[in-house]
Design goal:
Elements lengths: L1 H16 L3 H7 L11 E4 L2 E4 L2 E3 L1 E5 L8 H13 L4 E5 L3 E2 L2 E2 L13 H15 L2 E5 L15 H15 L5 E4 L14 H14 L5 E2 L1 E2 L5 H10 L6 E2 L7 H19 L6 E2 L14 H13 L4 E4 L27 H19 L1
Parallel strand pairs: 4-5, 4-14, 5-8, 8-9, 9-10, 11-12, 13-14
Antiparallel strand pairs: 1-2, 2-3, 6-7
Length: 349
């Protein structure tokens, strides 16, 4: 009897200590589930899952107006062409198509916030980084607005709470915040918005884009006063711009060293076709990307948007009727091939 009891207790202990097959399946990582995509910063570079990476991206502003099928096809084409990040606006409209994920008070707006959540999950699965951009408006009648700090704060809270489970995105607090129209957001407001993000989501990366080359004083404001995680200047859109990018990049880093704080430099919105009289060619795009890389930039964007001709393609500005790749012109398609060569050359070094 004593031997029987001892054997029974031993079996009972093993049953308690050794998990069942079902328990083990729950506790072990699912080999079929891709790892989450985690964006970070290391020195002057971005990282994805702790590995240094150059963010090579493409404008996808009106994504929330596209169907899931359009987005899947575009994302597949983007990854084929080597892109690893996209820029999407949280409050965007083109013509009469308001596809904003938030309203003018910063509150959630259906079904577009849900589309942003879907897109974020799809990009996370694919290893793609997403730039989520807010704007206070540009003064046009159709432009969604966040014209009070209270509304802007609410918009930040809506996005942080709605997207917090994903680590593959950063927040541009205010597009071209320095421009003195409806877009303008003071450094003091940026600091308050940045602090709100860090309070709600401490590891979330934040920036605020500048409409043009950043002055030394403005750079100091971004880095030391607003305490942004990286800078995002929008370079001039003229034929001289590609040849100036490397020198301008080096100047930024020299200034940052003087300030005692050096961050990544992200060219989030360079020139594009359809904007003005100058129509950049494939070689212009390639030259600008080479200059950004040579100057030490951490990221660069293949920018695209609507033609100022009413009959021209809308590209990323309106994706409700056609997906992005169906709207790129022949010069842009040629540029994609040249840009792949530049990226391949960088990766080979």
């Amino acid at each position: 009897m004593t031997s029987f009891i001892r054997s029974f207790l031993t079996c009972l202990a093993m049953a308690v200590l050794i998990p069942t097959v079902a328990d083990a399946a729950v506790r072990s990582p699912d080999p079929g589930r891709p790892l989450s995509t985690h964006l970070g910063i290391e020195g002057t570079h971005f990282t994805i899952n702790s590995k240094p990476v150059f963010l090579y991206g493409i404008s996808y502003y009106g994504a929330l107006g596209a169907s899931e099928d359009f987005m899947r096809q575009d994302l597949a084409d983007m990854q084929r062409d080597g892109f690893n990040w996209i820029r999407v606006w949280a409050n965007w409209s083109s013509s009469s198509n308001n596809v904003s994920a938030i309203d003018e008070k910063g509150e959630p707006r259906s079904p577009f916030l849900q589309r942003l959540q879907w897109l974020m999950a799809e990009c996370d699965r694919r290893g793609v980084v997403v730039d989520v951009t807010l704007t206070r408006g540009n003064g046009s009648r159709s432009s969604p607005r966040l014209q009070t700090l209270a509304a802007h704060r609410q918009a930040v809270e809506t996005l942080i709470h709605g997207l917090k489970t994903h680590a593959n995105w950063y927040l541009d607090l205010s597009n071209e915040r320095n421009v003195r129209d409806a877009r303008f957001t003071s450094i003091q407001d940026l600091k308050e918005l940045r602090d709100l993000v860090k309070q709600l989501d401490p590891t979330r990366l934040v920036t605020a884009s500048d409409g043009g080359d950043i002055s030394k004083d403005a750079l100091q404001g971004y880095l030391l006063d607003a305490q942004l995680d990286f800078i995002a200047p929008h370079r001039p859109r003229d034929q001289d711009s590609p040849a100036q990018t490397e020198a301008k990049s080096r100047e930024y880093f020299a200034w940052m060293k003087q300030f005692g704080r050096v961050t990544p430099l992200h060219y989030q919105e360079p020139f594009r076709r359809g904007y003005g009289k100058w129509q950049p060619t494939a070689k212009d795009y390639a030259a600008d990307l080479r200059g950004a890389i040579a100057g030490g930039a951490a990221g660069w964007c293949f920018h695209n948007g609507s033609s100022r001709s009413s009959e021209g393609p809308q590209r990323s500005f309106d994706l409700t009727r056609k997906r992005l790749y169906e709207q790129l012109d022949q010069e842009e398609l040629a540029a994609l091939k040249e840009l792949q060569t530049v990226i391949a050359s960088r990766q080979a070094k």
